[in-house]
């Protein structure tokens, strides 16, 4: 387990130079490595490579000019609903806006494609991730008791609904 506890003392650093690119077979190896460093039940390389052939799935990487994958995020879209599979950033590149940039791609994709909502699960204790999602308009909509293992912990369900946003735009006019 290597979840980042909320720590207001983690200083923000200057942004690093990177581009957002689709994950490919080569980059999937670095994604698998980051998975292992972040999660007790990581996506394996084989699982990630399967995602490359999954027409419903999109995985994107923040690819640094130094050839390093700084972070990545995965999205699955089913019947107009978006499920964020995971998002993570290498420890040494955190607090530089990388996760925000990745998540923003999916939010803009959801808006452009008219998705009903984006949704995800997050460990109840993962304050850094919950704050990231809240910053991007996600709200807590539910809780799944003992959803996670190693260690056992509840999942918080967070959703950003675009239907409501659309109604809001109409209302504002
Ligand atoms: C959660 C995680 C993806 C954030 O990545 P990041 O690139 O550091 O996030 P960003 O720099 O884009 O931060 C965006 C916002 O998230 C919140 N945030 C991120 N890290 C935080 C931390 N350690 N403490 C408090 N808030 C944090 C803040 O609101 C931040 O906005 P701000 O910089 O204006 O304060 C990263 O900590 C990580 O990889 N954690 C391990 C994997 C994980 O838990 N993934 C989530 C699975 S659901």
Explained architecture:
The relative contact order is 0.15. 34% of the residues lie in helices and 34% in strands. The chain is built from five helices and seven strands; from the N terminus they run βααβββαβαββα. It is an alpha+beta fold. It has a seven-stranded mixed beta sheet, sandwiched between helices. Coenzyme A (COA) binds next to β4, α3 and α4.
CATH superfamily: Gcn5-related N-acetyltransferase (GNAT)
CATH-derived architecture: 3-Layer(aba) Sandwich
State mean pLDDT (0 to 100 scale): 90
Find the CATH topology.
Aminopeptidase
Helices, by number, come to 5
Biggest β-sheet: count, sense, barrel?
7 strands, mixed
Span between N and C termini?
Answer: 48 Å
List ligands, each type once: coenzyme A
CATH uppermost class: Alpha Beta
